[in-house]
Design brief:
- The chain is mainly α.
- The protein has one domain (3-72).
- The chain is 88% helix and 0% strand.
- It has helices spanning 3-35, 42-72.
- α1 runs antiparallel to α2 (42-72).
- The longest helix is centred in the first third of the chain and has 33 residues, at 3-35.
- The radius of gyration is 16 Å and the shape is elongated.
- Keywords: Membrane, Transmembrane, Transmembrane helix.
- The chain crosses the membrane at residues 6-22, 49-71.
Length: 73
């Protein structure tokens, strides 16, 4: 197998493991934000949730791009 396939597979597997491991923490942060709408700590928790969503989206776009690149090459 070629190197690009290994890079693509590793990128997808490592990213998936990281996302799954962080999922519970993000769910608890969202629950905390919903329960305490007036709390000042919500801003930092909301920012971390938003960055997690942005990172997940970037990982997905990167994974799709790598798969497309692998099929093209």
């Amino acid at each position: 197998m070629d190197l690009l396939l290994w890079i693509t597979t590793g990128f997808m597997l490592i990213g998936l493991v990281v996302l799954v491991s962080m999922k519970k923490g993000m769910e608890s942060k969202v629950a905390f934000i919903k329960a305490n709408m007036e709390d000042k700590e919500n801003l930092s928790k909301a920012k971390s949730v938003i960055w997690w969503i942005c990172g997940t989206t970037a990982w997905g776009v990167g994974a799709i791009s790598l798969v497309g690149w692998w099929f093209h090459g």
